[in-house]
Amino acid sequence: MEADAFVRHRALEGLGAAGQEALAGARVAIVGVGGLGCPAALYLAAAGVGALTLIDSDHVSVTNLHRQVLFGPGDVGAPKVEAARAALARIAHGAEIDAVQERVRPDDAAALLAGHDLVLDCTDGWPSRYAVADACAALGVPLVWGAAQGWFGQVTVFADGATLRDVFPDEPAPALDSCEEGGVLGPLCGQVGAAMASQAVVRLTGAGRGLCGTLQVIDARDGAWRSIPVAGGVRA
C-alpha cells in the first residue's frame, strides 16, 4: 500500500481528512510567479491542492534566482510559468497545473480568475494588484495578498467584504514598488510566500478566520511580525 504523503495533515486538529479532501478539490490561482509566488506555489502543491493556475507574463532572469526558488540557472530565459510548472510537477505528480503566460489587466482579470476557489496575489506592481483585487471582489473570491520590498513584508487576506482598496485606496509611495526597481532580501520573500500559502490552506479548509481583517507586517532585521487591523474600513 502506497504511503500517505499527507498523513501529517490528516493528523492535524482542525484540518484532518476533511480538510485534506478540501485541498484536493480546490482550484487556486497564483498571480505572479516570482519571489512570493514561487514559495507559495511550492508549498500549496506539496500540501495537496488539486489544481493550480500560474499566471505570469515574464521570463526568468538571472537576477531572479536569489529569491525565486523554483528556478535555477538553466531556466534563465524561459517563461516563468512553464519553468514553474515543470518544477512543481516533480513535487506534486497528481496536481493539475495550468500555465497562463499573460499579464493580468483590468479588462481581463475577471475572466482569468473566474472559476477559482481562492486567489493569491504575488505581483509586485500596483496596477496588477488593483486589477486582481477588484476582480476578486467582483467575483466574490477570497484573495490572499502579500508584498515584499527591501527588508519589509506584508500579508493579509481580503474576503467577507474587505478589499485591497480599504487598506490602500490610492497607490502608495515607491517604498512598496516593484522588486526590480530596488533591493529585496531573498529569504524574506520565502517568509512572506510561505505565510501566504498557510493562509490559503486555512481559508480553503475552514480551519480558522486567518488574517482576514488584519495586516501582518514584518521587518526582517528584527524578525518581528506586527499586526495592524484593517477591517471595517480602518486604513493602515
Structure characteristics:
236 residues; 8 strands; eight-stranded mixed beta sheet; Rossmann fold
Description:
With 236 residues, the chain is α/β, with parallel strands linked by helices. The protein has a single domain, classed as NAD(P)-binding Rossmann-like Domain (Rossmann fold, 3-Layer(aba) Sandwich). The chain is built from 8 helices and 8 strands. Strand 1 (27-31), helix 3 and strand 2 (51-55) form a beta-alpha-beta unit. The longest helix has 20 residues, at 186-205. The N and C termini lie far apart (52 Å).
Helix proportion: 25-40%
Contiguous helical run count:
8
CATH-defined topology = Rossmann fold
Strand content bin: 15-25%
The biggest beta sheet, please? Answer: 8 strands, mixed
Strand arrangement, major sheet: 3-2-1-4-5-6-7-8
Could you give me the name of the CATH homologous superfamily? NAD(P)-binding Rossmann-like Domain
Distance between the first and last residues' Cα? 52 Å
Short description:
This protein has 236 residues and is of the alpha/beta class. 33% of the residues lie in helices and 19% in strands. The chain has helices at residues 7-10, 16-24, 37-47, 80-89, 109-113, 126-139, 164-167, 186-205; strands spanning 27-31, 51-55, 96-100, 118-121, 143-149, 152-158, 214-219, 224-229.
Task: Give the helix/strand layout.
Elements: H1 7-10, H2 16-24, E1 27-31, H3 37-47, E2 51-55, H4 80-89, E3 96-100, H5 109-113, E4 118-121, H6 126-139, E5 143-149, E6 152-158, H7 164-167, H8 186-205, E7 214-219, E8 224-229
Parallel strand pairs: 1-2, 1-4, 2-3, 4-5
Antiparallel strand pairs: 5-6, 6-7, 7-8
Helix pairs in contact: 3-8
